[in-house]
């Protein structure tokens, strides 16, 4: 008995499942997500799924190719940082969704027991009729699950702290920061992550003239090292604005050297008793 497989339908199903898996992965790992990058990554996975139908590949090479494409998809969706961790989470989610779809199809008698379900890295059911409504329902449930799980992870992360040591020239300071998975601030030119630090903590440590120049509203004579100052757009629930950031000569987070900018918060108060907000990305 032969069965016709439509490439466009297979592409659409795999694109939907890969997009869903990437979205859930991004929520769990607190990655910065952009729609066009998620679409590009999901399209890459879907094209791979269609391509392997026309190229006879044995199981072992196919598995290695699937793993390579998983890493490529995560790099395209979330960037190269922590790509191995993100890829492992993505593969786990893909297998979980694949198994759940297979179980649901079997439970409701929609899966023909005479056929096998081919699963290798992506959720697919090549030899069974998958009801479209079931895919939409499962996608909605998975999205809700991702939102809830992402919120739980953020609450847990918000209770964590990190020891920060930074220095400019021969001046150094050490203080504790609060880990915040919601801190996705980046320096726009380099794309480097930003720690948000209360500027008063760095008074006397920052390069000469920088602190007073920013505090004075960029009025007066600009310091000689003004070229190291960066304007970082920021959007919050209270509105949008700009923070000024500098790159320290030394930055250790929990004893590990990191490359990141320090965005200076000139407002009064602190972050729940801590002097900085630390993004998960630099841990």
Walkthrough of the structure:
This protein is α+β, with helices and mostly antiparallel strands and about 280 residues long. It folds into 2 domains: about 5-155; about 160-280, Cathepsin D, subunit A, domain 1 (Beta Barrel). Helices cover about 40% and strands about 20% of the residues. The chain is built from 6 helices and 9 strands; from the N terminus they run H-H-H-H-H-E-E-E-H-E-E-E-E-E-E. The chain has helices at about 5-30, 35-50, 60-80, 85-105, 130-160, 210-215; strands at about 160-170, 170-180, 195-200, 230-235, 240-245, 250-255, 255, 260-265, 275-280. A 9-stranded mixed β-sheet has the order 4-5-8-3-9-2-1-6-7, with no helix packed on it. Strand 4 (about 230-235) and strand 5 (about 240-245) form a beta hairpin. Helix 1 crosses helix 2, helix 1 packs across helix 4 (about 85-105) and helix 1 (about 5-30) runs parallel beside helix 5 (about 130-160). Residues about 110-130 have low confidence and may be disordered.
Question: What is the secondary structure topology, with strand pairs?
Answer:
Blueprint: H1 7-28, H2 35-51, H3 59-78, H4 83-107, H5 132-158, E1 161-168, E2 171-179, E3 194-198, H6 210-215, E4 230-236, E5 239-246, E6 250-253, E7 256-257, E8 261-265, E9 276-278
């Amino acid at each position: 008995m032969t069965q016709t497989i439509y490439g466009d339908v297979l592409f659409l199903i795999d694109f939907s499942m890969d997009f869903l898996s990437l979205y859930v992965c991004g929520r769990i790992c607190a990655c910065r997500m952009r729609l066009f990058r998620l679409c590009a990554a999901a399209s890459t996975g879907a094209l791979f799924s269609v391509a392997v139908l026309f190229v006879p590949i044995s199981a072992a090479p196919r598995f290695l190719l699937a793993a390579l494409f998983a890493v490529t998809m995560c790099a395209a969706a979330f960037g190269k940082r922590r790509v191995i961790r993100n890829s492992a989470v993505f593969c786990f989610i893909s297998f979980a969704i694949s198994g759940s779809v297979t179980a649901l199809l079997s439970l409701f008698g929609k899966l023909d027991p005479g056929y096998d379900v081919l699963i290798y890295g992506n959720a697919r059911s090549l030899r069974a009729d998958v009801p479209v409504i079931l895919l939409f329902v499962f996608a909605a449930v998975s999205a809700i699950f991702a939102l809830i799980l992402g919120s739980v992870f953020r609450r847990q992360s918000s209770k964590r702290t990190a020891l920060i040591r930074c220095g400019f020239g021969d001046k150094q300071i050490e203080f504790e920061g609060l880990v915040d998975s919601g801190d996705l601030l980046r320096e726009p030119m380099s794309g480097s992550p930003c720690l948000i630090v209360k500027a008063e903590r760095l008074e006397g440590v920052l390069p000469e003239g920088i602190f007073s120049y920013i505090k004075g509203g960029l009025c007066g004579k600009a310091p000689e090292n003004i070229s190291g100052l960066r304007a970082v757009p920021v959007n919050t629930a209270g509105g949008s604005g700009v923070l000024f950031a500098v790159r320290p000569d030394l930055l250790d987070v929990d004893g590990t050297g990191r490359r990141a900018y320090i965005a200076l918060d000139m407002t009064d108060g602190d972050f729940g008793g801590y002097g900085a907000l630390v993004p998960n990305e630099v841990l």
